[in-house]
């Protein structure tokens, strides 16, 4: 399973996130590959998040190529940087897009600050 | 346009860039100047070969300033580890105390160097960058560097010394400094300019207080300010302008080389010497505050009054001097300026001031002592001034290096017809006739009261009355409703609309029935910009908002006009003019420049600067003082001072305490009651 | 230093020399900037090939200025025959109205030209110029000039148009003119900037406030802003001047980030026109009694961008409040970490502090409830991620070794944290003020938990932790022989013993034991720390003391405003007044605009406060300083539904009235009076 | 040939009161160098009346220069203040007295009354105009 699918599937089994408590809205992802475009629909409502491959309009439409979204989903690319870079384009409510930061993981291998201090020896 | 900072002491001044360095620049006379000669044309400080940059500059006093410097371009990314305090002062000699601070936590070795040169240029050469005749030489002597320039017997020298041991070479001096952690080091570098006179001594040594030290100057300034009347008023701007003026007037005083009287230098940097006209005008403006300025002006100008016909100097018997220069070119008669007489207004103004001076001070002796000079001046009006034999005052330049126009607007294009043509010569500009009229009226009073010559008095009054009639016939332009700027040689009217006619009100030559029209012209566009009365109306062919005498606004011109307006009872118009001037002064830190641009006020938030205007300028410094006189309506009446305030509401309350005069000292109060519709 | 003139609208701004020209120069960066990208690197006006010189500059508004120019070097003795008025405004796009006046009595023919270039440099590339990765193309079209930059999908464009007919070419735009006698000619040049997003449209269109605004709109907006603020009337001219200046500057400093609605205070003009967690939070604290509308949006925005996951490059951790956001190319391509960057240890506790202070003034409980989870996450961060050594203090050490900040407190220059003898401690470091903030955050968090979150257990827990922190702090940080608080602790638990201003913040936080406060106050106003113009960042005599060192000797107005507030908190009314007075005195030498910092030279040595070379003016928290000082002098403090006024004005400050102070009470007035009368002697005579 | 300096002083002695201010008083001494020797001219001024002698007496103002240069001054060819400024004339004592005495020096040779030139150019038109206007 590719990181994108893994990411979206994962969202459905996620405990409700209080930080998303007051967010309501739908985000449509259009992920291009050379052959086709597959779409995901994200529904945010009162902390709970659901992701399906329904193809319908939303408050906010996010478009990029699938490979790049794989990197975002894996935490390797930063959603905000991607937006500035015009690698991801967003139409509709930018605010909804910014909540993506809450959902995607951090970069793989990021350090716990305390570990960082402890492991100084190894560096 | 590079920002320049100056300190001055009489006619000695040091102009440098914002970090204290002097680099010769063609467009502006940077350097150390004294008596119209540049004694330092290069004065550049480096540390380890690097130029410094200013963090800030403190102008402590007019004769003293301080620069806080760091090496290299200041950025807030890297902290400077060294800073330099450059504290300079003038008092005869130029002194610069250099303090180097090491901010490191460790010792450091630095090389401090001052690049020094002098071209001994005259202030005008500094403009045109001609090379002087004569020989230049540099001598490295034990403990000092001596820069010399010699032309025949004329020798000028700059001698540079330092309190700390230094390595001198022909281009400057160098210090190798070892500084401990967080330690300081200082030295004082001294530059003395000398001009050789009798027995090789500095000619200025016979001047009292020529070599002055700072504490003395501090005390002098305090005393000077102490002598002046105290002003308290609601308008802080007016208070600032008043104080600034008093200080600048102190700053511009120096003791004349030949006359040995306290004189007033005219304007920094171009006119740091006596100008007849401006000494008289400023003397007039400052009478209610500092009568000694007027007395000194009268003395020196009497002393230097023209005694013979000399075409090279435009000199004639009885004529009052236009300007003195001490520089080498004058001495060698490359220019006529050692004593130049090319002005037609100083002579009548001399008589005007003599009378006004007595009215305020009651100093009858001076009036008696100057009877001879006053009479010669009056005689000049009817003889050499009366070039066309028609009873008007005319001028025409005879000197090769002289001035085209010999009224106060002396630039070549200042006197023109509305359509831009320039009249032939000789020319008789209107304000000259006004001055002549006033001079005769006032002289009549003097003749009666002090020279006991009533016959002469009657004659003067007849002449004056006759002049007034003819003037109102020949200069008045009924179709335009204002007075011609001048008459041309053919007696035709030079019809440009200009500020000059404001002076006519001041002189009293205007027929009452016409004063209203004159006032209207002065206080309404195209002549009035909203910041003041333009030298030339903005619908005239030569109009240029940044034209020196063809559109720019001159504060002292406006101060005369304001007093004239009050003389004819236009209190509100005078008040309006006073307010705009005070408002303008705010944007110059209270220091009125020689002139500023004539752009319409609706176009500019600030009064736009006139390029390279002289500042300070004595008559501009005199302006706030004369405006105060006008606002409070001060007039000597026998042995009393009459007060008749007409103050705009905008200025609120004005109290002037301790006004000196024949009455001893007296106070004047006034409250803002004149309401003006906003500009 | 060359005088620069800048105008701005949000984070779109123009910096030029005083002729209005833009010239690429690494030492004096000028240009038209928007969203951290330079859209114009050359904008140079010539008449017949000659550059012009300035007669004067009218800085009409922060978004509008006017230049009066003449060709060549102006001289005293030759009248210029031509003058040029350059009137520029900025409201989304950049507009310049050129007026050429012919003062001659005959017609003139001349060529007016603007040389136009763009290097599309990222703000971070300006100080050290580097090769651009992408390519720039210039498209000359009939009626406009297009400067385009592209790097992969990243596109920026500047479009130049003119109302008067013009010839466009690769290098700029020319006008061949014939102007009649005393006539004038005019054109309006317009420069649009494009930050490309979805469908080639400008990404900023999503911000309601971004759309181009006419100067008229901007003017109305400013008037309304000034109208809402309390009115100050006082005998002290400098005080009223600096207060009015501050209100206007604060208005200028408002900007709208990409994702949020109402404007927030940016950090500084022009280079820091973006969100800095620390600067924005402190500015909001300073200005709460005057312009409370800023605090809410700031808290909401910082909450939105709060860290959720770990990220070494961005120094991000769950619950952490951001340090800095940037929008430029280097951020977009993840060469710089500002998307956003989280490298500061103080913004997180300060977030909780502002939230509480905001509620005390506004009574806006709803926001406190809305942000409960963010506030808790922030408090959690203090114990979980900031406590690097596991000993209950807040520490910092960077994980981004490429371009992260070494010192993650407000004194963030490399040499700011040192021992008395000048040595630098190892990492991680725990500076004292951070502990104060943490203490204050916990105390205030407890109040919020009780009042708004109905969680008494949590409240008591926080209070216990706070009390314990205070006790340990006073044990571990107190330098007993010197009788002051250490600047920091090192990894060995040793005291970093330099005497510094940080101690003053401790008074503000309330972590100082009462019996030690007097000593602290004595140090702060003693000769080593107090220069006469204010409290130095580092005391004279310390190894690294440098009167012109960024964080090691200069005087920072915002620092002093917090110190004064702290002194008042512990009852040192006179000392607080002393500092306030020094600041207000200093302000008059900067036309009421306090700079970021000025030199620490002794006041006896300098007649004026010597300016520290700074890239930014105004600086948000310097702008907030006079406001906090006024609050401190009048002793304003909300108690329940009321505002307590307890004035303590220095002698000679005369009367002070602050009318219509907004808050949960509606509007209320405050009065105070200093004893001796205020004198109005101009500075040049006070010798 | 005649000695311009001697003629100058003779003239000043006769015409003093017309040349000098009535209040003028004081003493000047001119020390004129010529091939090794120095001529002394002692000038006593009282209410404009002038007495000239060759006495070597202390004076309020002592002026030293070359005889040749002074001759030129006496003829009006050179001007004494300019000469002082270029250090060809040196002065000790009361300088203002010399400035006052400056009035006694004649115009440059060939100098004409400026009004005559105008009269030639305009043939007295100014006065005629005036007369017409009177009618």
From TrEMBL, chain A:
<feature type="domain" description="SCP2">
    <location>
        <begin position="17"/>
        <end position="97"/>
    </location>
</feature>
<protein>
    <recommendedName>
        <fullName>SCP2 domain-containing protein</fullName>
    </recommendedName>
</protein>
<dbReference type="Pfam" id="PF02036">
    <property type="entry name" value="SCP2"/>
</dbReference>
<dbReference type="InterPro" id="IPR036527">
    <property type="entry name" value="SCP2_sterol-bd_dom_sf"/>
</dbReference>
<dbReference type="InterPro" id="IPR003033">
    <property type="entry name" value="SCP2_sterol-bd_dom"/>
</dbReference>
UniProtKB/TrEMBL annotation, chain B:
<dbReference type="Pfam" id="PF22422">
    <property type="entry name" value="MGH1-like_GH"/>
</dbReference>
<protein>
    <submittedName>
        <fullName>Amylo-alpha-1,6-glucosidase</fullName>
    </submittedName>
</protein>
<feature type="domain" description="Putative glycogen debranching enzyme N-terminal">
    <location>
        <begin position="8"/>
        <end position="190"/>
    </location>
</feature>
<feature type="domain" description="Mannosylglycerate hydrolase MGH1-like glycoside hydrolase">
    <location>
        <begin position="427"/>
        <end position="586"/>
    </location>
</feature>
<dbReference type="Pfam" id="PF14742">
    <property type="entry name" value="GDE_N_bis"/>
</dbReference>
<dbReference type="InterPro" id="IPR054491">
    <property type="entry name" value="MGH1-like_GH"/>
</dbReference>
<dbReference type="InterPro" id="IPR032856">
    <property type="entry name" value="GDE_N_bis"/>
</dbReference>
<dbReference type="InterPro" id="IPR008928">
    <property type="entry name" value="6-hairpin_glycosidase_sf"/>
</dbReference>
<dbReference type="InterPro" id="IPR012341">
    <property type="entry name" value="6hp_glycosidase-like_sf"/>
</dbReference>
Automatic annotation (TrEMBL), chain C:
<dbReference type="Pfam" id="PF22422">
    <property type="entry name" value="MGH1-like_GH"/>
</dbReference>
<dbReference type="InterPro" id="IPR032856">
    <property type="entry name" value="GDE_N_bis"/>
</dbReference>
<dbReference type="InterPro" id="IPR012341">
    <property type="entry name" value="6hp_glycosidase-like_sf"/>
</dbReference>
<dbReference type="Pfam" id="PF14742">
    <property type="entry name" value="GDE_N_bis"/>
</dbReference>
<feature type="domain" description="Mannosylglycerate hydrolase MGH1-like glycoside hydrolase">
    <location>
        <begin position="332"/>
        <end position="596"/>
    </location>
</feature>
<dbReference type="InterPro" id="IPR008928">
    <property type="entry name" value="6-hairpin_glycosidase_sf"/>
</dbReference>
<feature type="domain" description="Putative glycogen debranching enzyme N-terminal">
    <location>
        <begin position="8"/>
        <end position="190"/>
    </location>
</feature>
<protein>
    <submittedName>
        <fullName>Amylo-alpha-1,6-glucosidase</fullName>
    </submittedName>
</protein>
<dbReference type="InterPro" id="IPR054491">
    <property type="entry name" value="MGH1-like_GH"/>
</dbReference>
Automatic annotation (TrEMBL), chain D:
<feature type="compositionally biased region" description="Basic and acidic residues">
    <location>
        <begin position="112"/>
        <end position="135"/>
    </location>
</feature>
<dbReference type="InterPro" id="IPR003033">
    <property type="entry name" value="SCP2_sterol-bd_dom"/>
</dbReference>
<dbReference type="InterPro" id="IPR036527">
    <property type="entry name" value="SCP2_sterol-bd_dom_sf"/>
</dbReference>
<protein>
    <recommendedName>
        <fullName>SCP2 domain-containing protein</fullName>
    </recommendedName>
</protein>
<dbReference type="Pfam" id="PF02036">
    <property type="entry name" value="SCP2"/>
</dbReference>
<feature type="domain" description="SCP2">
    <location>
        <begin position="23"/>
        <end position="105"/>
    </location>
</feature>
<feature type="region of interest" description="Disordered">
    <location>
        <begin position="106"/>
        <end position="135"/>
    </location>
</feature>
């Amino acid at each position: 399973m590719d990181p994108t699918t893994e990411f979206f599937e994962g969202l459905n089994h996620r405990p409700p996130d209080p930080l998303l408590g007051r967010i309501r809205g739908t985000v449509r992802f259009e992920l291009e590959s050379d052959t086709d475009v597959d779409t995901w629909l994200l529904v945010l409502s009162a902390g709970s998040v659901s992701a399906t491959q329904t193809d319908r309009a939303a408050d906010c439409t996010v478009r990029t190529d699938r490979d790049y979204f794989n990197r975002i989903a894996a935490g390797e690319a930063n959603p905000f940087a991607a937006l500035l870079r015009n690698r991801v384009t967003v139409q509709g409510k930018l605010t909804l897009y910014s909540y993506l930061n809450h959902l995607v993981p951090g970069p793989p291998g990021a350090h716990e600050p305390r570990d960082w201090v402890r492991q100084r020896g190894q560096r | 346009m590079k920002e320049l900072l100056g300190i001055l002491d009489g006619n000695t001044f040091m102009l440098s860039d914002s970090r204290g360095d002097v680099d010769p620049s063609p467009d502006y006379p940077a350097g150390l100047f004294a008596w119209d000669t540049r004694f330092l044309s290069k004065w550049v400080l480096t540390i380890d070969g690097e130029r410094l940059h200013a963090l800030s500059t403190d102008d402590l006093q007019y004769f003293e300033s301080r620069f806080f410097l760091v090496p290299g371009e200041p950025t807030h990314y890297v902290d400077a580890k060294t800073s330099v305090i450059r504290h300079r002062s003038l008092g005869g000699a130029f002194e610069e105390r250099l303090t180097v601070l090491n901010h490191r936590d460790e010792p450091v070795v630095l090389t401090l160097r001052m690049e020094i040169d002098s071209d001994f240029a005259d202030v005008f050469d500094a403009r045109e960058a001609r090379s002087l005749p004569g020989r230049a030489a540099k001598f490295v002597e034990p403990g000092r560097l001596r820069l010399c320039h010699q032309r025949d017997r004329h020798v000028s020298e700059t001698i540079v010394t330092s309190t700390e041991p230094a390595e001198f070479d022909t281009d400057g001096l160098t210090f190798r400094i070892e500084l401990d952690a967080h330690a300081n080091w200082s030295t004082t570098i001294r530059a003395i300019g000398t001009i050789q006179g009798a027995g090789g001594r500095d000619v200025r040594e016979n001047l009292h207080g020529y070599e002055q030290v700072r504490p003395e100057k501090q005390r002098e300034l305090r005393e000077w300010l102490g002598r002046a009347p105290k002003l308290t008023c609601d308008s802080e701007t007016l208070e600032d302008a008043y104080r600034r003026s008093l200080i600048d007037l102190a700053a511009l005083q120096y003791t004349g080389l030949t006359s040995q009287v306290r004189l007033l230098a005219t304007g920094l940097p171009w006119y740091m010497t006596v100008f007849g006209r401006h000494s008289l005008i400023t003397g007039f403006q400052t009478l209610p505050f500092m009568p000694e300025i007027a007395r000194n002006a009268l003395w020196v100008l009497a002393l230097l009054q023209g005694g013979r016909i000399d075409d090279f100097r435009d000199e004639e018997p009885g004529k009052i001097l236009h300007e003195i220069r001490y520089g080498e070119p004058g001495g060698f008669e490359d220019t006529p300026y050692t004593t130049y007489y090319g002005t037609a207004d100083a002579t009548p103004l001399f008589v005007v001031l003599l009378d006004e001076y007595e009215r305020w001070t009651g100093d009858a002796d001076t009036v008696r002592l100057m009877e001879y000079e006053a009479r010669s001046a009056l005689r000049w009006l009817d003889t050499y001034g009366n070039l066309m034999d028609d009873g008007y005052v005319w001028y025409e330049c005879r000197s090769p290096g002289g001035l085209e126009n010999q009224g106060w607007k002396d630039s070549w294009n200042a006197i023109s017809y509305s359509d831009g043509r320039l009249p032939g010569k000789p020319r008789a500009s209107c304000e000259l006739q006004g001055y002549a009229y006033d001079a005769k009226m006032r002289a009549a009073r003097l003749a009666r009261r002090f020279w006991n010559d009533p016959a002469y008095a009657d004659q003067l009054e007849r002449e004056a009355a006759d002049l007034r009639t003819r003037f109102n016939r020949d200069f008045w332009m009924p179709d335009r409703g204002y007075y011609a700027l001048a008459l041309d040689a053919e007696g035709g009217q030079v019809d440009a609309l200009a500020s000059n006619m404001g002076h006519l009100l001041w002189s009293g030559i205007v027929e009452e029935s016409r004063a209203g029209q004159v006032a209207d012209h002065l206080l309404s566009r195209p002549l009035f910009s909203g910041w003041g009365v333009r030298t030339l109306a903005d619908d005239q062919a030569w109009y240029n908002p940044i034209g020196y005498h063809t559109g720019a606004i001159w504060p002292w011109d406006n101060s005369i006009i304001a007093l004239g307006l009050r003389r004819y009872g236009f209190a509100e118009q005078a008040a309006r003019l006073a307010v705009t001037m005070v408002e303008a002064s705010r944007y110059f830190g209270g220091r009125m420049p020689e002139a500023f641009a004539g752009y319409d006020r609706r176009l500019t938030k600030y009064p736009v600067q006139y390029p390279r205007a002289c500042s300070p300028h004595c008559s501009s410094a005199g302006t706030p003082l004369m405006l105060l006189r006008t606002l409070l309506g001060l007039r000597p009446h026998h042995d009393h001072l009459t007060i008749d305030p007409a103050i705009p509401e905008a200025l609120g309350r004005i109290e002037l305490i301790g006004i000196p005069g024949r009455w001893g000292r007296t106070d004047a109060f006034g409250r803002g009651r004149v309401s003006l519709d906003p500009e | 230093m060359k005088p620069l003139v800048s105008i701005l609208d949000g984070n779109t701004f123009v910096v030029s020399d005083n002729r209005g020209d833009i010239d690429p120069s690494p030492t004096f960066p000028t240009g038209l900037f928007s969203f951290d990208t330079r859209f114009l690197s050359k904008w140079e006006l010539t008449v017949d090939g000659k550059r012009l010189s300035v007669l004067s500059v009218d800085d009409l508004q922060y978004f509008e200025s006017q230049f009066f120019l003449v060709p060549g070097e102006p001289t005293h003795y030759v009248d210029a025959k031509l003058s040029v008025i350059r009137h520029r405004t900025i409201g989304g796009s950049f507009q310049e109205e050129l007026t050429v006046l012919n003062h001659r009595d005959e017609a003139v023919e001349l060529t007016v030209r603007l040389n136009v270039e763009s290097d599309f440099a990222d703000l971070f590339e300006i100080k050290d110029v580097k090769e651009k990765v992408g390519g720039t193309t210039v498209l000359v079209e009939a009626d406009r000039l297009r400067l385009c930059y592209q790097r992969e999908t990243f596109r920026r464009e500047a479009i130049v148009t003119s109302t008067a007919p013009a010839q466009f070419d690769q290098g700029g735009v020319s006008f061949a003119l014939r102007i009649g006698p005393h006539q004038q000619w005019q054109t309006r040049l317009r420069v649009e900037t494009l930050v490309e997003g979805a469908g080639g449209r400008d990404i900023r269109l999503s911000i309601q406030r971004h759309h181009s605004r006419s100067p008229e709109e901007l003017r109305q907006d400013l008037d309304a802003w000034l109208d809402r603020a309390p009115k100050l009337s006082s005998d002290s001219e400098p005080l009223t001047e600096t207060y009015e200046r501050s209100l206007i500057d604060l208005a200028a400093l408002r900007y709208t980030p990409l994702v949020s609605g109402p404007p927030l205070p940016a950090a500084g003009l022009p280079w820091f026109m973006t969100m800095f967690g620390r600067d924005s939070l402190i500015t909001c604290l300073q200005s709460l009694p005057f312009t409370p509308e800023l605090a809410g949006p700031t808290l909401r925005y910082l909450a939105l961008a709060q860290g959720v996951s770990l990220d070494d490059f961005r120094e991000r951790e769950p619950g952490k409040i951001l340090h800095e956001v940037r929008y430029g190319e280097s951020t977009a391509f993840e060469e710089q970490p500002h998307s956003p960057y989280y490298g500061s240890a103080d913004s997180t506790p300060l977030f909780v502090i502002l939230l509480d202070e905001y509620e005390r003034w506004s009574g806006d409980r709803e926001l406190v409830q809305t942000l409960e989870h963010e506030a808790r996450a922030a408090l959690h961060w203090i114990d979980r991620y900031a406590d690097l050594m596991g000993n209950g203090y807040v520490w910092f050490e960077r994980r981004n070794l490429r371009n992260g900040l070494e010192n993650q407190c407000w004194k963030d220059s490399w040499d700011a944290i040192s021992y008395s003898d000048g040595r630098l401690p190892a990492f991680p470091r725990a500076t004292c003020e951070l502990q104060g903030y943490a203490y204050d955050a916990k105390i205030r968090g407890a109040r919020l938990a009780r009042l708004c979150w109905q969680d008494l257990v949590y409240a008591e827990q926080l209070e216990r932790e706070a009390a314990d922190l205070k006790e340990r702090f006073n044990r571990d940080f107190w330098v007993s022989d010197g009788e002051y608080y250490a600047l920091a602790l090192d990894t060995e638990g040793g005291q970093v013993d330099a005497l510094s201003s940080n101690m003053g913040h401790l008074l503000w936080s309330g972590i100082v034991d009462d019996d030690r406060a007097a000593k602290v106050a004595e140090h702060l106003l003693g000769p080593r720390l107090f220069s006469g113009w204010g409290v130095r960042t580092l005391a004279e005599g310390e190894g690294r003391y440098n009167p012109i060192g960024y964080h090691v000797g200069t005087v920072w107005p915002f620092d002093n405003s917090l110190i004064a507030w702290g002194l008042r908190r512990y009852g040192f009314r006179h000392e607080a007044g002393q500092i306030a007075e020094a600041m207000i005195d200093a302000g008059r030498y900067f036309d009421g605009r306090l700079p970021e910092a000025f030199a620490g030279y002794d006041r006896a040595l300098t007649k004026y406060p010597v300016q520290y070379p700074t890239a930014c003016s105004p600086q948000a928290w310097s702008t907030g300083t006079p406001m906090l000082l006024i609050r401190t002098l009048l002793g304003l403090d909300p108690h329940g539904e009321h505002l307590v006024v307890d004035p303590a004005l220095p002698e000679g400050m005369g009367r002070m009235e602050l009318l219509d102070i907004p808050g949960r009470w509606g509007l209320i007035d405050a009065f105070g009076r200093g004893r001796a009368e205020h004198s109005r002697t101009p500075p040049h005579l006070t010798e | 040939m005649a000695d311009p300096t001697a003629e100058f002083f003779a003239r000043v002695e006769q015409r003093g009161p017309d040349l000098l201010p009535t209040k003028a008083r004081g003493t000047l001494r001119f020390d004129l160098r010529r091939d090794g020797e120095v001529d002394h001219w002692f000038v006593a001024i009282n209410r404009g009346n002038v007495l000239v002698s060759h006495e070597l007496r202390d004076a309020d103002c002592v002026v030293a220069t070359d005889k040749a240069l002074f001759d030129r001054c006496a003829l009006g060819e050179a001007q004494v203040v300019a000469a002082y400024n270029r250090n060809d004339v040196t002065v000790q004592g009361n300088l203002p007295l010399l400035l006052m005495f400056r009035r006694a020096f004649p115009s440059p040779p060939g100098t004409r009354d400026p009004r005559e030139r105008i009269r030639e150019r305009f043939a007295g038109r100014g006065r005629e105009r005036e007369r017409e206007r009177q009618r």
